[in-house]
Amino acid sequence: MEFDDSVMIPRAHAEKGAEHKQRMTLHCQQCSAVWGDSFSICGEVRSMDSIVCLRVTNDVVISDVLESGHGGELAGCIYSALKCRGCCCAVGKVIHSAPWRLASVRSMFLLHKANTSCYMLNHSSMVTASSLTFDLKPLGESMNKKTTWMRGLSRKPL
Q1: Looking at the UniProt record for this protein, which Gene Ontology cellular component terms does it annotate, in alphabetical order (predicted)?
Q2: Helix or strand holding residue 117 (H, E)
Q3: Long-range pairs for 136-144 at CB < 8 Å and ≥24 separation?
Q4: Can you list the domains of the chain with their CATH numbers?
Q5: Is 133 exposed, middle or buried (0-12, 13-18, 19+ CB in 10 A)?
Q6: Which of 21, 36, 77, 101 has the CB geometry, 3.0–4.6 Å to 26, for a possible disulfide?
Q7: Distance CA 34, CA 116 (A)
Q8: How do residues 44-102 score in pLDDT, each as one tens digit?
């Protein structure tokens, strides 16, 4: 996904995204309920201090109440709050309707980094999500590498 004029941050250099290659699970900082994993993470919104996820576990409850943002980053948005099933703390938001600047995160789960801990599987350690970055490489760059690789395969004799 390319992110022109969007709130999502593209990754410019490979070394910046090295943290995302580490496999991790996302947890509630209060009760340690599991909210998701690194396979569902698709970036972050720095201005909202949130991790963007495609899916979450059943320990994240979506409120039935639709809220309207009147100021700040959520001005002009309709969203639902997310709560932890284990301790009922605020987890984040799901934006249902938004202006163009937030269109790239519509219908995705925005988890507050301040309330999230990450269990790093490679290191067997728990760290705060606020200490990590979740920037991803733009899709165009990945597609160019795959295309080059496929061309190389097609030139090899069987």
Answers
A1: chromatin; chromosome, centromeric region; nucleus
A2: strand 116-120
A3: 136/10, 136/11, 136/17, 136/20, 136/42, 136/43, 137/10, 137/11, 137/14, 137/17, 138/1, 138/2, 138/3, 138/10, 138/11, 139/1, 139/2, 140/2
A4: 14-155 (2.170.150.20)
A5: middle
A6: 36
A7: 10
A8: 999 899 999 999 999 999 999 999 998 888 999 999 999 999 999 999 999 999 998 89
